[in-house]
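To: structure desk
From: M.T.
Subject: fold request, one chain
Message: Could you run this one when you get a chance? Sequence is below, nothing fancy, just the single chain.
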Amino acid sequence: MFSSWTVRLLVVVVLITALARTSAQEVTLPNGQALFDAIPEETRPVFIARFKSVVRFQGTHDWQQLYELLARPNPKLKAEFVARSKKYDRADASYVLEFQPDHLTKLPEMLEEKYEWIISGCAKYQIGRQIEHHHSSMYAPFRDGNWYFSEVMINIRCGPNDPDPCQGKLSGTKK
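Reply: Done. Structure tokens follow.
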């Protein structure tokens, strides 16, 4: 489903998010205000375009294009990433179809990265022939003058007392 690199990044994102809660700037979608207004105005159009592209490329399995937008790409490993990802281009695979963010968390500024955000919300996945909705997140650092992203990843829930807020969405079999 997800590469080992993606799983490691997810663990890092979850840990950073947990550690940064006290010093992070959180933005929840308020009445009538665009969620991405929290992104610096001078980089917001590029952020939105690249965010939408990551979701689209992940859903259409355009691994070549997706790799160019990943948060930690290594040009030497692009062919390996594409080949490994193509193994999941099958009928029983899990992949994101849509991602509707409703929350941003700005992580504390790091020396090497001016801005870092966690984007979370509900994502629609095709898992085999089923359509499911899961609370999901993406990591978005700004570095080298541009925005980069992780893949959309399902947030890990902590048991029955931590229900997925997106499970109330309609789901069913793809026709």
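Reply (cont.): The first strand starts at residue 25 and ends at 28. Let me know if you need anything else for the meeting.
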